[in-house]
Amino acid sequence: MAVIHRQLNSSQNRRILSTFIESDHFQTEMRSVNQESDAITMTEDDETSLLNSEKEVVVLNHPKLNKKINFTSQHQYRRRKLGCPCPAIAILANHSYITPKNAEDPIPFYQLIYGLVYCFNISFLNAIFLTFTANILCGNGWSTSMAKLGAHNKIEHDGSLTRYDSDKGDSLNPSPERIFNFLQSASKPNDRLTLKDFARQRILVEMETETTRSMTRRGILTTLGEYGLVMSVFGKKTSMIKGDEEMGITAEWFKTIYLDEKLPSDYSPPDQPVTVFKVFRLGKSLHKMMKNTQSLI
């Protein structure tokens, strides 16, 4: 990962990243990541043969590469229950974008930045911000680990839609019961979940948490940021005219992302890089909807 490390010391972040993606270094780094995760880099002939076989293949169009990425050959899904409170980071581990050997194994900062940019099309500056926020709160500044990310009230927080509070159960792994309860409470449980549905459920979950202990300010802000990020990466609007309240994801995608901690089979990264501003805007929209409790509950 030396190439990515060197990029972080340059002021021309975006241009260098684009050049790197199109260069021969990209294939070198991909082979390095695959070796670390016991994956095998396939030749074009191997990929063609696999595409013609009966094996399930997920082919995505990556906007930064402008070419197809074969997730079966390069980022095959392999469930690794390492106890991660963040679904996005768990997805990166399950698809070998980050390659910790166990929950205690350090995740270098450049590897996490790499995964956020290539898998979710997080903007380079946003990826740096998210990575070093996690590393400062849950690491030594340069790396973190799944175990450190699980420390209570840092990245992990009470009031999760998909995990129990730490005083009530497993706060690090998804709860099928909580996930299906949310799906059933949604306005259109068999269709899609809108930001309005997330707001309604957030109110109920926070009320549940408050019966035993108060949510911290950091926990509330982390929650808003998490769902702002999820909607920025996976959300779609039903209409370009309507506001953020109509931003949503399908129920099937929600189950795949949060229960299996897996990329949906028909997923492709956002066309535009996900910026800090977009995540903040959607988080703020969610917070405003939560304030209007009478119309939601």
TrEMBL record:
Molecular function terms from GO: metal ion binding; peroxidase activity
Transmembrane segments: 112-138
Top-level taxon in the UniProt lineage: Eukaryota
Alphabetically ordered keywords of this record: Heme, Iron, Membrane, Metal-binding, Oxidoreductase, Peroxidase, Transmembrane, Transmembrane helix
SUPFAM superfamilies, A to Z: Cloroperoxidase
Domain Heme haloperoxidase family profile: 70-281
Cofactors required: heme b
PANTHER family according to UniProt: PEROXIDASE STCC, STERIGMATOCYSTIN BIOSYNTHESIS PEROXIDASE STCC-RELATED
Family, per entry: Belongs to the chloroperoxidase family.
The protein's name: Heme haloperoxidase family profile domain-containing protein
Native source species: Cronartium quercuum f. sp. fusiforme G11
